[in-house]
Structures are given as C-alpha cells and as structure tokens.
Amino acid sequence: MKIKNGFVMKEVAGSNVVVKVCGNVDFDSMMTLNESAAILWKKLEDGADFAQLIETLLTEYETNRKTAEKDVLVFVKKLEDAGILE
Questions:
Q1: 3-state secondary structure string, 11-80?
Q2: Cut 0.85: pTM above it
Q3: Residue 1 per-residue DSSP state
Q4: Which of 5, 85, 75 lies closest to 37 in space, CA to CA?
Q5: How far apart are CA 71 and CA 84, in angstroms?
Q6: Can you tell me the distance from the alpha carbon of 19 to that of 26, in angstroms, rounded to the nearest whole number?
Q7: What integer pLDDT is reported at residue 24 of this predicted model?
Q8: Is residue 35 within 8 Å of 25, Cβ to Cβ?
Q9: At what angle do helices 35-45 and 50-60 cross, to 10 degrees?
Q10: What confidence tens digit (pLDDT) does each residue in 24-77 have?
Q11: What number of other Cβ atoms are within 10 A of residue 57's Cβ?
C-alpha cells in the first residue's frame, strides 16, 4: 500500500487537504482529512502497512482493535476509491 506519486497533504486554512501536485489537477481527487486521517496519511508517507496503521490508532487514541481496524479499512478504501493509492 503506497501513496501514488504526486499526491501530498497540505494544510489549507487550518485543514489538512490531500491534493495532486503534478499533471492535471483532478479536483474530484482532493479530500479533506480529519486529525486521525492526517496521522494515518503521515504514516503511509513513511511506508506503514495496514497493521502499522492500526497500531498507530491504538497508540494515539483510546479505542479498541475492532474499531481501529474498521477505521483504517474505511480510510484506505476512501483513498483507493479516489485513486490516491497504488
């Protein structure tokens, strides 16, 4: 699982936004990330896998494994659906 080249997270007006910075800009691929999604994005940039993303949520937030797994699955699916992940 890897972020495609050209996609970056930028802070815009206090919000974390994923944008495509090369080629044609596809505004459908832009998305705003909440705090936990921004943390997961940074972990993906560092090469984290699915299990490491789950561990990140368990470490950063008071949640259980089942909820963390579901949240990571939803996050990854949204990135895949937007064409952001390889």
A1: EECCEEEEEECCCCCCHHHCEEECHHHHHHHHHHHCCCCHHHHHHHHHHHCCCCHHHHHHHHHHHHHHHH
A2: yes
A3: -
A4: 75
A5: 17
A6: 8
A7: 62
A8: no
A9: 140
A10: 655 555 789 999 999 999 999 999 999 999 999 999 999 999 999 999 999 999
A11: 21
The reported pLDDT for the residue numbered 20 is 84
The residues with which 31 forms a beta bridge, in sequence order, are: 18
3-state secondary structure of 83: coil
List the structure tokens of 20.
Answer: 């495509």
Q: Locate 45 and state its tokens.
A: 């940039």
Helix (H, G, I), strand (E, B) or coil at 81: helix
